[in-house]
Amino acid sequence: MSEQTSNEPVLAVDDLRVDFAATSGTVHAVRGVSWELRSGRTLAIVGESGSGKSTIAASILRLNPTPPASYPSGSIRYDGRDLLTIGEAELQDIRGNAISMIFQDPMSSLNPTTRVGVQIGEVLRRHRGGRRRQHRDAVLAALRSAGIDDPERRATQYPHQLSGGLRQRVMIAMALVGDPQVLIADEPTTALDVTVQAQILDVLVELQQSRGMALLLITHDLGVVAEVADDVLVMRAGEIVERGPVEAILTDPQHSYTRQLLAATPRLRDDREERAS
């Protein structure tokens, strides 16, 4: 968990509402949520599938297709700008640069026909210009920072030649190569086994602390939250039902839904029972 803090939020969400048009009517996916994220802090948004947590993450970079998505109210402010209303060109300058995102499934996010080093370098070329060779050192440094050994060789490989854990590390390298202020990690370890999951979480924590980034973690797993987060938002059916520092949420949950999530997390349930005995 992080120690560096800032008084001013680097990202502020106010009364955000996200709707989706469907054949059966309007789906109110996010229902008026507000929160702030500060530099050097890790905020976890936790909830089951359909709670709206990933919709919020996608809304920050306007990745929800419109239509069917719409934003009836609210704002998402970064650096004095509302990300919901700025122009597409201005938003493109922010995506992958000031604000980056790690997705759940690397295989659907990485180009299977392009070497991973080239894909990481494209992020720098898009935002900083220059030729591919000019960014080679930065690409290799990003791979090293993500915990990848022998980055020179890995950079020449294609996604299908890498294990699931290595592909997720490549996604981390790609997200960090632009030195973002905000990193969004949407279920970054769900598809990984427990050992690799722990390694990826360690990498995220180390990088977040060393760079002083703001980290927004989207997850359904309170065990992951316990390892990484400073603060927690618990979501259900598009609304925040509980929020607070991670220790308070894990040791003294006030909402019945939070208690249900804790009971469904074996590692935390066993720890709580052991402390109570």
From TrEMBL:
List localization entries: Cell membrane
One of the record's GO cellular component terms: plasma membrane
One GO term under biological process is: peptide transport
Which GO molecular-function terms appear in the entry? ATP binding; ATP hydrolysis activity
* Keywords (A to Z) from UniProt: ATP-binding, Cell membrane, Membrane, Nucleotide-binding, Transport
Is Acetylation a UniProt keyword of this protein?
no
What top-level branch of life does the organism fall under? Bacteria
Q: Does the keyword Amino-acid biosynthesis apply?
A: no
Q: Which residues form the ABC transporter domain?
A: 11-262
Coiled-coil regions listed: none
Q: Which SUPFAM superfamilies match?
A: P-loop containing nucleoside triphosphate hydrolases
Q: Which InterPro entries is this protein grouped with? A: AAA+_ATPase, ABC_Ni/Peptide_Import, ABC_transporter-like_ATP-bd, Oligopep_ABC_C, P-loop_NTPase
Q: How does the protein's chain sit in the membrane according to the entry?
A: Peripheral membrane protein
- Family membership, please give it: Belongs to the ABC transporter superfamily.
What is the protein's given name? Answer: Oligopeptide transport system ATP-binding protein
Q: Which organism is it from?
A: Microlunatus soli
